[in-house]
Write a structure and sequence with these properties.
By secondary structure, the protein is an alpha+beta fold. It has one domain (35-176): HIT-like (HIT family, subunit A), CATH 3.30.428.10. Helix content is 29%, strand content 15%. The chain is built from five helices and five strands. It has helices at 22-28, 42-48, 94-115, 153-157, 166-176, and strands at 57-60, 64-68, 78-82, 119-124, 140-145. It has a five-stranded antiparallel β-sheet with strand order 1-2-3-5-4, sandwiched between helices. The chain is globular, with a radius of gyration of 18 Å.
């Protein structure tokens, strides 16, 4: 790849570009519901759909499910969500909390087995101030990580990373799910 010149003029910055245009929809807030109450919320709509492949659902439990993040930070970035429309972790039932934990553990095992992840970021972003993009419906992020994957790629590797295709990632994880 040819280095791209900054603003089309001047000296090249020496970085290769691997474009991730799907992220722009996220940055602009496209398809984000204006009303995040039950029914309109994407985390309520997704599990009602029949087509797990189309809606990127990896695994369904009785009270919660695992789904790929539509705008991943890394290949394999998924979320574990309760079916019930609840915003705060402290408002989950004991059974919901247990299934969220169980699906999260299974997600970690599966991602480690199929992608050889070297580490993980696991967490809940609660409320707008806590960084939740969809604050009205609790969702736990599970992000696989590898040494040098994001932190230093532009500096050391002179490239920006491009995640695996979502449908390919979904198929791999769904087929390989480890309990």
């Amino acid at each position: 790849m040819e280095p791209v010149r900054q603003d089309g003029v001047g000296e090249a910055d020496g970085l290769d570009r691997l474009w991730t245009p799907y992220r722009m929809a996220y940055l602009r807030g496209e398809n984000k519901p204006s009303d995040q109450s039950a029914g309109e919320c994407p985390f309520c709509r997704i599990p009602r759909a029949d087509d797990d492949e189309r809606f990127l659902v990896i695994r369904r439990g009785e009270l919660a499910y695992a789904v790929l993040n539509l705008y991943p930070y890394a290949a394999g970035h998924l979320m574990v969500c309760p079916y019930r429309h609840v915003a705060d972790y402290t408002d989950t039932t004991a059974e919901e909390a247990a299934e969220i934990a169980s699906l999260t553990k299974s997600a970690l095992r599966t991602l480690r087995a199929v992608s050889h992840a070297e580490g993980f970021n696991v967490g809940l972003n609660q409320g707008v101030a806590g960084g939740a993009g969809i604050a009205a419906h609790l969702h736990q992020h599970v992000v696989p990580r590898w040494v040098g994957d994001q932190n230093f790629m532009p500096v050391i590797g002179h490239a920006k990373t491009l995640p695996q295709l979502l449908r390919d990632t979904r198929a791999l994880l769904a087929e390989s799910w480890v309990r």
